[in-house]
């Protein structure tokens, strides 16, 4: 419990965004990208970002939300295993027995890809609803209230939003797993790296932490129609373009559903909410309880 409270396990758990390897690879990518831009590099490393009041609030909130997750949210969140068991039972009861005959290697590659793509698709829609449904936006505003972005800003999320994303993960992973068990039998697994879905590890290792940073790393425009770049997610945090780039890993959901912004074609404005709203999110109390007061 002590390590959960202080968030230490986040640094040593490969399933977490701020696993030390992902932080290191993001740092190296950032230094390489900014090597020829010394002014930008010095700004990114400046205490004006890392010791900004918004950043200090993120650090404190991270410790508190870690405790809330462990003590309150994890015990009540629906598990992917529960969903898998229920969906598989219903399929077995209502459909004829089916088992497709493909090689084990092909099956695990398909499973790895399907569970990653379906998860990203459901993440896109939940994220979009958090912006477009007024009641849900109350809670998601907590995340968008950050004036500066650091990797810890990723965890500036209200417990209600954490609960929704936990349910989303359980449903998407559970349904996909149940279908694969029904079609291919129980001996399924994903292609893992460090015990985590290999695609998740790859995406987090190639600069995911730069999304919540001031390193405006852009991809070629044609790539940004497929994958979300750090600069595209920073556009999403800018107060004039929050209705763009809801995607997690893939940009083609935004492209398909009309919410894509290409970073080279759009200027990044100031991070955070409108000024008259920001004063409500300057404390732990404000982050946790402002959504219930309106």
Protein described:
The chain is mainly α and 294 residues long. The chain has two domains: 2-215, no CATH class; 216-277, no CATH class. 59% of the residues lie in helices and 1% in strands. It has 15 helices and two strands. It has helices at 2-6, 9-12, 20-34, 38-44, 47-50, 53-73, 80-94, 104-132, 134-144, 159-184, 198-205, 230-237, 252-256, 275-278, 284-293; strands at 192-193, 196-197. A two-stranded antiparallel sheet has the order 1-2. Strand 1 (192-193) and strand 2 form a beta hairpin. Helix 7 (80-94) packs parallel to helix 10 (159-184) and helix 8 (104-132) packs across helix 9.
List keywords for this structure.
2 domains; two-stranded antiparallel ribbon; mainly alpha; 294 residues
């Amino acid at each position: 419990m002590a390590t959960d409270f202080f968030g230490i396990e986040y640094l040593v758990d490969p399933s977490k965004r701020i696993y030390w390897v992902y932080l290191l690879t993001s740092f190296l990518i950032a230094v390489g990208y900014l090597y020829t831009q010394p002014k930008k590099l010095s700004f990114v490393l400046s205490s004006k970002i890392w010791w900004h009041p918004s950043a200090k609030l993120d650090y404190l909130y991270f410790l508190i939300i870690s405790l809330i997750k462990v003590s309150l949210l994890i015990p009540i969140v629906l598990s992917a295993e529960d969903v898998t068991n229920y969906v598989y039972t219903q399929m077995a009861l209502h459909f004829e027995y089916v088992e497709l005959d493909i090689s084990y290697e092909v099956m695990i590659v398909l499973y790895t890809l399907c569970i990653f793509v379906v998860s990203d698709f459901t993440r896109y829609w939940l994220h979009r609803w958090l912006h477009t449904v007024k009641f849900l936006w109350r809670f998601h505003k907590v995340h968008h209230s950050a004036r500066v972005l650091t990797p810890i800003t990723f965890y500036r999320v209200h417990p209600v939003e954490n609960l929704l994303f936990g349910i989303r993960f359980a449903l998407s992973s559970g349904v996909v797993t149940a279908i694969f068990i029904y079609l291919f039998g129980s001996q399924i697994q994903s292609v893992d790296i460090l015990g985590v879905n290999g695609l998740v590890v790859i995406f987090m290792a190639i600069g995911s932490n730069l999304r919540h940073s001031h390193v405006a790393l852009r991809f070629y425009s044609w790539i940004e129609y497929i994958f979300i770049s750090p600069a595209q997610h920073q556009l999403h945090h800018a107060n004039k373009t929050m209705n763009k780039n809801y995607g997690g890993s893939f940009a083609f959901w935004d492209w398909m559903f009309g919410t894509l912004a290409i970073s080279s074609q759009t200027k990044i404005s100031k991070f955070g909410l409108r000024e008259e709203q920001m004063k409500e999110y300057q404390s732990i109390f404000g982050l946790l309880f402002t959504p219930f007061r309106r």
